Structures are given as C-alpha cells and as structure tokens.
C-alpha cells in the first residue's frame, strides 16, 4: 500500500507561491508514495475551549481525521515578519490537540521555505522547526531547503520552470523519501 505524505502550504493567497510549490512537489511523488495536498483554508483560529467543552468545529474533525491518516508531512512555508504565517501556526496548533492526541507525533517531516526575497524565509523555516521538535516529529536536516526569488520560478500557467531550482527540489524530495524510510514507524 502507498505511503501517504501530506503537503501543507502556509498560505491562503490565491496566487500563493507556496501553493504553486505544493502542486509542483505533488507531481514529484515517487512510486509507492501518494503525495496529498492538505487544505488549511477552512480551519477556525484555535480556541482551547472548543476541545475542553466538546464543541469541536467540524473543520477540525475533518482535518484531524485526514492528518491522522498521513505517514509523513512536507511543510512549505512562506515567511511573515521573520516567522511562520499565522495560518500555518494555526494548523500546527489545531493538529496538536486535544492533549495526547496530536496528529503530528512521530511523523517524519521536511520543511521547504520560500520567499520572493533573497533570504528565502530562513526565519520561518527555523521557527517552524522549533515547533516540530516539540511535537516529536523527526525533521530532515539535509539538504536544508531555502528557496529564494520564487516569483521568477513559475511560468504563466503557474508551473515550475525547468532549471536548477526544480532539479534541487527533486533532489530534496529524494532525500526526504530516504529520510522517511529510515524514520517512519
Ligand atoms: C504580513 C506579511 C509579512 C511579510 N514578511 C516577510 C518576511 O518576513 N520575509 C519575507 O521574505 N517576506 C515577507 N513577506 C512577503 C512574502 O514573502 C510574500 O508576500 C509571499 O508571496 C507570501 O507567500 P505566498 O506567495 O505563499 O502567499 C511578508 C508578506 C506579508 C503579507
């Protein structure tokens, strides 16, 4: 049976580069793997009362069930003010609760950060890494995936152009698959 890898892009923007990268990455799934884009668009902002008072929004239940079925996760994060966008932190928080029932626990992860700027969302990449360490997710160390100048990366139809960044992404996926094989339960 195929291993299922979720791809979570940390942006709701229609023309999001992170969402375009998610589509490109989905197309790079090797045989035996199902790469699945997980939508985070409908998740209300996390409020612990929802879980404590048994008033869990339907969107949380749908997401938690979907995430529980994943074997690993690739996070594609842009950067807001040198950290992860709120929508990405929100999905991390929603998935981490109720206490003891985290959907993230033990699942091998990779972080691909990107920006139209030169620093490639380094700050977001490492803030996200900090949360994933706490959530007990093994995280691919190498290669580190920082994608700068992403506004030049796509053609008019939104597809990733051939070139060194596309080649690097493929290598990063190969490395993640090898990492996944060693670290999945
Ligand atoms: C509130 C806000 C804060 C931002 N802060 C940063 C930042 O710290 N570093 C950076 O490289 N880009 C920053 N940007 C620019 C984003 O990289 C750019 O909008 C990018 O396209 C967002 O990702 P997306 O295309 O996946 O939506 C910021 C954008 C917004 C809206």
How many β-strand stretches? Answer: 5
Main CATH class: Alpha Beta
- The CATH topology is what? Rossmann fold
Could you state the order of secondary-structure elements as H and E? EHEHHEHEHEH
Question: How would you sum up the major sheet?
Answer: 5 strands, parallel
Question: How many H/I helices?
Answer: 6
Structural class: alpha/beta
Question: Could you estimate the helical fraction of the residues in percent?
Answer: 25-40%
The appropriate CATH architecture is 3-Layer(aba) Sandwich
Distinct bound molecules: flavin mononucleotide
Q: What do we call the CATH homologous superfamily?
A: Flavodoxin domain
Distance between the termini: 15 Å
Low-confidence stretches: none
Structure in words:
This protein is of the alpha/beta class. It has one domain: Rossmann fold, CATH 3.40.50.360. 38% of the residues lie in helices and 15% in strands. The chain contains 6 helices and 5 strands, in the order E-H-E-H-H-E-H-E-H-E-H. The chain has helices at 17-26, 48-52, 58-68, 86-96, 122-134, 164-183, and strands at 3-9, 33-37, 72-77, 109-114, 145-147. A 5-stranded parallel beta sheet has the order 2-1-3-4-5, sandwiched between helices. Strand 3, helix 4 (86-96) and strand 4 (109-114) form a beta-alpha-beta unit. The longest helix has 20 residues, at 164-183. 32% of the residues are buried. The model has no long low-confidence stretch (mean pLDDT 97). The structure holds flavin mononucleotide. Residues 11, 13, 16-18, 78-82, 115-117, 119, 121 line the site of flavin mononucleotide.
């Amino acid at each position: 049976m195929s291993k299922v890898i979720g791809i979570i892009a940390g942006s709701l923007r229609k023309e999001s580069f992170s969402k375009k990268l998610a589509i490109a990455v989905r197309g790079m799934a090797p045989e035996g793997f199902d790469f699945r884009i997980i939508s985070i668009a409908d998740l209300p902002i996390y409020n612990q009362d929802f879980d404590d008072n048994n008033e869990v929004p339907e969107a949380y239940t749908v997401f938690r069930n979907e995430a529980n079925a994943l074997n690993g996760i690739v996070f594609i994060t842009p950067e807001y003010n040198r950290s992860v966008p709120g929508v990405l932190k929100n999905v991390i928080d929603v998935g981490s609760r109720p206490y003891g029932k985290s959907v993230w626990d033990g699942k091998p992860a990779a972080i691909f950060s990107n920006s139209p700027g030169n620093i490639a969302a380094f700050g977001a990449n490492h803030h996200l890494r900090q949360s994933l360490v706490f959530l007990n997710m093994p995280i691919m160390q190498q290669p580190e995936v920082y994608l700068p100048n992403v506004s030049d990366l796509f053609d008019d139809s939104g597809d990733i152009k051939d070139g060194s960044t596309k080649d690097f992404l493929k290598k990063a996926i190969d490395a993640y698959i090898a990492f996944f094989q060693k670290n999945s339960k």
